[in-house]
Amino acid sequence: MLDKIKRLGSDTAIYGISTILGRFLTFLLTPLYTHVLSAENLGVVATAYAYIAFLNVVYGYGMEGAYMKYVSTLELGDRKQVFTAPFLSIALTSLAFSGLLIAFAGPVAAVSGIPPDYESIVFMSAGILLLDALTIVPFASLRMASKARAFAATKIAGIVVNVVCNVLFLFVFRMGVQGIFLSGLISSACTLALLIPVLIRSLAYSWPRHLLPALLRFGLPTVPAGIAGMMLQVINRPILGALKGDAAVGVFQANYRLGIFMMLLVSMFDFAWRPFFLNHAQDPDARPLFSRVMTYFVLAATTIFLFLSFFLFDLISWPVFGGYPLIAARFWEGFEIVPVILLAYVFLGIYNNLIAGIYIEKKTSWLPLVTITAAVIHVAANFLLIPPFGLMGAAWATLVSYVVMAGMMYAIVQRIYPIAYEIPRIVKIFLVAAAVYLASLFAGTGIAGVLAKAGLLLLFFGLLAGTRFFETGEWEAARRLVRRARLAKSSG
Fold first, then answer.
1. What distance in Å separates the CA atoms of residue 283 and residue 209, rounded to the nearest whole number?
2. What's the rounded Cα separation, in Å, for the pair 160 and 162?
3. Which residues pair with 325 in a beta bridge?
4. Positive or negative: CA dihedral 417, 421, 423, 428
């Protein structure tokens, strides 16, 4: 079991390097935006990309998951045929969707709340959506073929292009908001170009007639679930804008993006996790393996939550750009939402762990029930909490909805694919983390506060050890890792 988890960890690390580097480069755009755009303009960008996020789900209509499921079993067609059917289907529908967006750009901008001066971003968004949709199946094929390095290199290249174009268009050509979307369009085009070799070697001339209907039966039920899931991530921006104005959205967005560090863990794990559980679903120790993965994920995510909650504000307020802080001071007022957003991502990661049973048993029809319920609660909570609590109300609404989603998924999966998760160990993690976090609120500020929080982080592991959280085999594995690290350091 530990060997399989080690392989999952290795793949997660490779995806993680690309995700961390790529997201870090993208994250650098946030301080860039806060220094060159007004809060109102940043709110326009956040709102527009919120709609792009929704439409990404529609453009893909579940074909990524359907491809990964059927290429893992090859029950209908060979690898090339299973690649070709969803790719060509997405290509045709994406051309139609983007054509409609371009044809009705004016009304789309008006309905979306995009100011008339920025109507051109609808055209660029249509292109971004089309190009990104064409990369869905090629990227999924790299994941299923365990070509994590090729996946990572392609992702990073596209993000580097995006960052460079942003700097060029914002600082040299002074294009403002339009420059951000033009950068995205160029980046998406470059990414697709890098995937052309994958297309050339993967396309077939035909496929079994039952293949595409099977893919659609698997994928389409995930569309409402995907839309609802995206609502959980972005619907609070339009609601916040309607209730508090674009400036509030800009402050919320700048601080919400600080949750990117937890999102990195969730994203890079998910990239490795889905191929992993599909490829190991038939193993005799699959269920105990998945249970142990959940425990280790919660431990890692909780550790990162504590670290970021303790030290992130010191990082963003530290003058690093010629005396300027990482995030402009006028956005600091919203930092209180960050720990709440970080915790929300922990529960998103738990949900991603639980989803294994849904895919293995082909029960994707359950996904809309879970995500739509959570989305309805999310919308209602935003309208209920934002008026009295402002940005914090939007953050709490996000956390509540992710907790609901994870809880519902646990109840459903235990019926269709029961797994004996290590609930007592997971509860220990949360209880000890909660105690340490509450203690950190009294740690103070300055160097003394930083040292106190560092001590609390060590205390977290000490308390876990004291409650006998760690098993004997885990201690031995940890000692081996320490010995290897020491040997590598001494040999270097």
1. 31
2. 5
3. 319
4. negative
- Nearest Cα to Cα of residue 358 among 212, 219, 175, 158: 219
Residue 135 phi/psi, 5-degree rounding, is -95, -5
Distance between CA atoms of residues 203 and 88, nearest Å: 9
10-residue averages of pLDDT along the chain (492 residues) = 57 57 59 73 78 88 92 90 96 97 93 84 95 96 85 87 90 87 95 96 91 92 78 77 78 75 79 82 89 93 92 70 60 79 93 91 86 90 91 91 95 94 95 94 82 92 89 66 52 49
CA–CA separation, 487 and 225 (whole Å): 48
| Burial category of 269 from C-beta neighbours within 10 Å (exposed 0-12, middle 13-18, buried 19 and up) | buried
Q: Let me know the angle formed at the C-alpha of 197 by 196 and 200, rounded to the nearest 5 degrees.
A: 85
Neighbours of 181 (CB within 10 A): 24
* 395 within 8 A of 431, measured Cβ to Cβ: no
425, 459, 462, 468 from 465: Cα distances, Å: 11, 10, 5, 5
Contact (Cβ atoms closer than 8 angstroms) between residue 114 and residue 237? no
Element (H, E) at 143: helix 136-144
Beta-carbon contacts of residue 109 (< 8 Å; ≥ 6 apart)? 115, 116, 118, 119, 121, 122
pTM of the predicted structure, to 2 decimals: 0.70
Q: Which residues pair with 201 in a beta bridge?
A: none
Q: What is the DSSP letter of 318?
A: S
Taking the C-alpha atoms of residue 299 and residue 140, their distance in angstroms, rounded to an integer, is 28
